[in-house]
Write a structure and sequence with these properties.
- 2 copies of one chain form a homodimer.
- By secondary structure, chain A is mainly α.
- Chain A has one domain (2-316): Farnesyl Diphosphate Synthase (Orthogonal Bundle), CATH 1.10.600.
- Chain A has 16 helices and 2 strands.
- In chain A, strands 1-2 form a two-stranded antiparallel sheet.
- In chain A, helix 4 (64-88) packs antiparallel against helix 6 (105-123) and helix 13 (248-260) crosses helix 14.
- The termini of chain A are close together.
- Chain A binds chain B through residues 26-28, 30-31, 79-80, 83, 86-87, 104-107, 109-114, 116-118, 120-121, 123-126, 128, 131-132, 135, 138-139, 141-143, 145-147, 149-150, and chain B through 26-28, 30-31, 79-80, 83, 86-87, 104-107, 109-114, 116-118, 120-121, 123-126, 128, 131-132, 135, 138-139, 141-143, 145-147, 149-150.
Chain lengths: 323, 323
């Protein structure tokens, strides 16, 4: 929870939380329960924080609109978590069984659709320009998922292609949240572009750290077992590094495991060991660090508002998060 | 295809088709391919026809807005088809493998989300009242799916409960399409309410006929095998009739198959035979006929516009459709 990150906007984040909770109210208690299960699991609420801070940092005064769009984006994010877990076969999420394991595939899938609908019901109240940006971010997200899936187990995938995919599936959403916050706050064109770039770089750093945690994360902190990228054949910076820099025997073994898919949990752990031993974690952390720096540099043209410091601090927190 | 039903609005339905096709354009060709696969499979386009005719029948003059909302609703409908097939494990749809069988669960799921997004991107351009009605119809749909799932294999489910569920998951969507068409066309409050009721009754008839086709449909015409309701334990009017009116031995056998789920295709066919032998098909067809009549009666207060006759004809076509 961002709450534990001690930001100045805890009141606004509570308003986002309240609106999200009100939005999932339904005549079917089970729908509300499943939606609440996913949303209540917390998460870092980093996306809403970025939107709210982007709003304030350009001088926004009446935060209600930013709260609404932040809630809409968080609802979309929750919908994609629900659907992603189904896709990945991920059985744990934030220390608890994934919703589709607890409630069944059909109920989880329908609840995702419900959350999408609720998000758009909020989003549709905004100007066409805002609608287009948020819809476009959702479309990119779908495109990123499709592309990642198409490139699964593709050991020849380039780093450039990796960056394209994570911008589609993760960073574009952060960028949209920052952009929309700045637009609603009445930012100048330059400010809006700067915050959008902040969001994009932050999102890239966020995803690289996610990929790192899938290799060396502490399950008791992340709430999910390591190795899902190995199981799914998702090509990450870490895997690319290990395939390019490990010793020859280890590389051949790793290639084999990824190409045909791991046959056992032992193979998953073996792949993780090979990746970790290749220096991929430090290398990827350095790359994430570069993007965090770029995120902060994107804020250069903004004034000395206190929210700017908080946005910079979020970049550090995203980089050093362990969950 | 409604085209084969020879309606006066074939030009408008082509415009809906064009907009739907343009909407699914994507940077990821696979996303467009899967979306096109589902949408291109045709279907009867009865929902768009109802929206367009409801628009014209109250005197609407500039059909472009009705075309847009009809396309948005058709995109939502296609998204739910994609997701429903995953839920039901339905392997065939309109004579071809279901998208999730052909393209994989993950790709089908993400394409459904993409279609939702595209639908809402169109829908968001409308007045809040229109947005609320369409979003509400989508929410009801999710609620109906959850409720149907919760009541699967519940042999004590009442007919009233069945009607609640099919209004949520099917008829509400028809009602929303008719209502929105009439609103955009500038209909009076009474006209809008009348067309909404028309849509609701038509949708109930449509769903009952769907349930009938799942028992006695000709696979070479419907494009999907019979018995999916038996496999899923979905309680329909036909099942309820058979459980209340069949001979005692057959009823006990049917109860057993539904309660524990069919163990084989032979059991599915046996359940179908028992249902068919109980007179459930004629009984359900009579019930669907009553709703088709009510749909037509809902149009009483409308003037003698030619579109009124077409709406009435659609009620007959829905009732007598064999696919």
């Amino acid at each position: 929870m961002m709450g534990s990150w001690d930001l100045s906007i805890s009141k606004e984040l509570s308003l986002v939380e309240d609106l999200v909770q009100r939005s999932i109210d339904s005549r079917e208690p089970l729908l509300t329960e499943i939606a609440g299960y996913v949303i209540g699991a917390g998460g870092k609420r980093v996306r809403p924080a970025v939107t709210i801070l982007s709003y304030y940092v350009v001088g926004g005064k009446d935060v209600d609109r930013a709260v609404q769009i932040a809630a809409a984006l968080e609802l979309v994010h929750s919908a994609t978590l629900l659907h992603d877990d189904i896709n990945d076969g991920g059985v744990m999420r934030r220390g608890r069984p994934a919703a589709f394991k607890k409630y069944g595939l059909q109920n989880a899938l329908v609840t995702g659709d419900f959350l999408f609908t609720k998000a758009f019901a909020i989003g549709a109240k905004f100007d066409p320009e805002i609608v287009d940006i948020t819809a476009e971010a959702c479309v990119r997200l779908a495109e990123g998922e499709i592309r990642q899936q198409a490139n699964a187990r593709d050991l020849s995938m380039s780093e450039k292609e990796y960056l394209v995919i994570i911008q589609q599936k993760t960073a574009g959403f952060f960028a949209a949240g920052a952009r929309v916050g700045a637009m609603l706050g009445g930012g100048s064109r330059e400010q809006i572009a700067a915050l959008s770039e902040y969001g994009r770089h932050l999102g890239i750093a966020f995803q690289i750290v996610d990929d790192i945690l899938d290799v060396v994360g502490d399950e008791s902190v992340t709430g999910k077992p390591v190795g899902s990228d190995i199981r799914e054949g998702t090509v990450t910076l870490l895997l690319q590094h290990a395939l390019n820099n490990g010793n020859a025997t280890a590389r051949t073994e790793l290639e084999g495991i990824i190409r045909r898919g791991p046959k056992s949990e032992e193979e998953v752990l073996r792949a993780i060991d090979i990746i970790a031993a290749s220096g991929a974690v430090d290398e990827s952390r350095a790359r994430a660090g570069e993007y965090a720096v770029r995120a902060k540099e994107s804020l250069d043209l903004l004034g000395p508002e206190p929210q700017k410091l908080e946005l910079m601090r979020i970049a550090d927190l995203v980089l050093h998060r362990d969950a």
